## 1
Amino acid sequence: MRFLIDFFPIALFVAAYKMADIYTATAVLMVATLVQTGLIYAIDRRLQTLHKVTLALVLVFGALTLFLQDERFIKWKPTVLYASMAIVLAAALWIWKKNFLQLLLGSQLKLPEPVWARLTVAWIAYFLFMAAINGYVAAYFSTEFWVDFKLWGYIFPVIFIVGQGLYISRYLKDDVVEKS
């Protein structure tokens, strides 16, 4: 169910673009992201920082797109989001000596410190890759191609999450075996 909640703003954005234009799609994305955030809050009774940042960026970049009638703002929003997340995770890990990933998920997953560090580096690399690929597509391809990329580009997070799950599974199995 969570995947559907996460996916529906992009699906509605693509559908609105195909039926109308980038400006209609941007307005639909803004409303859908507001609804998505409301649903997440209703289910969890709280919002994670990522949800708040995503909502703020969608609303700010969406508003700039609509008011200035310039599609570049909405096209570059994912690059700003991904790059920001990479910078925050990297600064936390290497400057502040805090592992935000572990702070967020440590109560749910018991993993050794070096595994948390490697996972965080993997997330930093993933966010940088996603920022770069979105920036490349936004800069060098048509808006129609970029919108299509937003849809089929969901393969990247799916591959990353599956790979991450496979990586940590061996540590989780050891934890389960030890408790038995």
## 2
Amino acid sequence: MKKFITSGVCAREIALEIDDNGIIKNIEFLGGCDGNTHGIENLIIGMSKEDVIKKLKGITCGKKSTSCPDQLAKILEENF
């Protein structure tokens, strides 16, 4: 799995494994709201990176301009 440092959110790191077809095989958040990050992990395994980006990009958390899901979408856009 490749590890990525997040910015501006509670999760400090997101580790991802994506196959050659752009399907998310494994994901793990380090930090963040435990129930929410586990929910995201379970929901997106098996999804295409494009679908995940469409669903999660732009989500904010409270007064923050980003969120853990938004950080994930940015990582997918920029690195895969």
